[in-house]
Amino acid sequence: MALDEKLVESIVRSILDGPSGSQESAGGLPEIPVGVSARHIHLNRTHMDILFGPGSELTPIKELMGGQYAAQEQVTIIGPSLRPIEKVRVLGPLRKATQIEISRTDTFVLKVKPPVRPSGQIEGSAGLTIVGPKGVVRVDQGCIIANRHIHMSPADAQLYGVKDGDMVTCMAKGERETQWFGVQIRVDPSFTLEMHIDTDDANAVGFFGKPCVTIIK
Ligand SMILES: [Zn+2]
Questions:
Q1: Is 37 helix (H, G, I), strand (E, B) or coil?
Q2: How many whole angstroms from 151 Cα to the centroid of ligand 1?
Q3: Is the predicted pLDDT of residue 3 greater than 90, yes or no?
Q4: CATH number of the 22-35+148-215 domain
Q5: Boundaries of every domain in the chain
Q6: Centroid of ligand 1 to alpha carbon of 149 (angstroms)
Q7: pTM of the complete model
Q8: Looking at the predicted structure, is the pLDDT value of residue 188 above 80?
Q9: What is the signed CA dihedral for 45, 49, 52, 55, rounded to 10 degrees?
């Protein structure tokens, strides 16, 4: 009977803790929360004017880190397949260059071949057609698959022993536990600690509960 009680207690504890109950990595450093980026677009002023009307402004609906926000505005994107992807969220504020971030899975619908890049590096990337309520824009470049990256403050960088631009390897626990290589460290005082991955990476792992990773170098 005593044994059964112990067994029940251990089962209950394992359920309460969850399969990834640990809040610390092997090295004793806190796990890093993961944000999953769905496909989205950043617009420049010129394209905003064409897609949503001259002088139009974005309507923030959800604050993101570093002064960025998800806007109420959405667009449709179309590639050579002519199969559109609708309701692509616009992120604000406006930028110098329009940039569309999609997943590899999306490329099979659109029939485009974007490179995997850090945000902002769009030279020679894929083109796309963007449709808004007021007009249509064709860009020759700007479509990328965002690389895996971790945002952090200078203090976090010190804690984890990394610096801006470093490439690290992360362990992701889930239904299909895996390691991610080539994860770019991005350090800025405006950043809070968060890893950003796309929906393909997130879906592949199948995180248990709140997604998080550990840096294993
Ligand atoms: Zn990011």
A1: strand
A2: 6
A3: no
A4: 2.40.40.20
A5: 22-35+148-215, 38-146
A6: 6
A7: 0.85
A8: yes
A9: 90
